[in-house]
Amino acid sequence: MIDLKQKLSSLLAEEVSIQERLQKICAYLSQEISYYNWIGFYFRDGEKEELMLGPYVGEHTDHTRIPFGKGICGQVAVSGSTFVVPDVAEQENYLACSLDTKAEIVVPIFKDAKNIGQIDIDSHSIDPFTKEDTELLEWLSQEVAKIL
Ligand code: SME
């Protein structure tokens, strides 16, 4: 986990655009963690109650805009709390991106105490996320907020 964090920190410090840095973060997590099968960022669209898809790695998704309250992402936009879904089949308010997705974790990103976006990870395994994943991704969310 320490090595992962070191590498993530160095990617965040690269002298390339923010979009490129976030894209590299997605690619790195996808490469390093076998059960992270779709990794992406969503950001709030200005003051609208809507999320826009940012950099991601994984299958194409139709959910490029998600209204607040809709799906797991939309719920985190409202709650501001990490949402771990061990089995997406048990969620009624869920937006399917891929039939292969079995589990999801969404971690909010706060900038100046405002919930401005999130890290979204889908897994093809059931119940793969541990408290270490939550800890890593909440740490990453704080590090990402620093470069925004
Ligand atoms: N499953 C998410 C939608 C985004 S995709 O996973 C890329 C949700 O329910 O909000």
UniProtKB/TrEMBL annotation:
Gene3D superfamilies associated with the record: 3.30.450.40
UniProt domain GAF: residue ranges: 17-147
Coiled-coil segments on the chain, per record: none
SUPFAM superfamilies: GAF domain-like (SSF55781)
Matches recorded under InterPro entries: GAF, GAF-like_dom_sf
Protein name per Swiss-Prot or TrEMBL: GAF domain-containing protein
Organism annotation: Elizabethkingia argenteiflava
Taxonomic placement: Bacteria, Pseudomonadati, Bacteroidota, Flavobacteriia, Flavobacteriales
